[in-house]
Specification:
The protein is mostly helical and 142 residues long. It contains four helices and no strands.
Length: 142
């Protein structure tokens, strides 16, 4: 039993040290090289705007006017939390349509997603894995 404790604590300390080494190695490479994150400006506190307007172009022009610098691109992070379910449903519907079109043009048969016929022990672990990963049983609509 003492051997197991020594191995456990030794390996734990080793992995902590290895994690610190990896972090330091990444930081060293990051400091030595210029990446896109070195050329970013974040603007916080813009007023809410409808999604139908071309905010990116307007914001790009305003930043170029104020800074006198050429702006390569602008990306706006939209607050879509209130409409998340509707957006996800629209995306899922569009993907289903595209997949059906792809399958029909390629004559691909949809895969069988029914639960496999397994012996009792494997079925137990299959269901446990699906519930742990949030996969469901494949027969229900998500």
């Amino acid at each position: 039993v003492p051997f197991l404790w020594i191995v456990y604590i030794g390996s734990l300390l080793f992995w902590f040290a290895y994690g610190i080494y990896q972090l330091r190695a990444f930081q060293e490479v990051d400091y030595k090289n210029k990446t896109m994150k070195d050329f970013v400006a974040q603007i916080i506190g813009l007023p809410p705007v409808e999604g139908t307007k071309h905010v990116e172009e307007d914001l790009k022009a305003a930043i170029e006017r104020q800074s006198g610098q050429t702006v390569v691109g602008v990306s706006v992070a939209w607050d879509w939390y209130a409409q998340e379910q509707a957006v996800q449903a629209a995306i899922r519907e569009d993907l289903d349509e595209q997949e059906a079109l792809y399958r029909s043009t390629r004559r691909i048969v949809a895969p069988d997603t029914s639960e496999p016929d397994l012996p009792a022990p494997r079925k137990f672990f299959y269901l446990l894995e699906n519930s742990a990963l949030g996969l469901g049983n494949g027969n229900e609509a998500e």
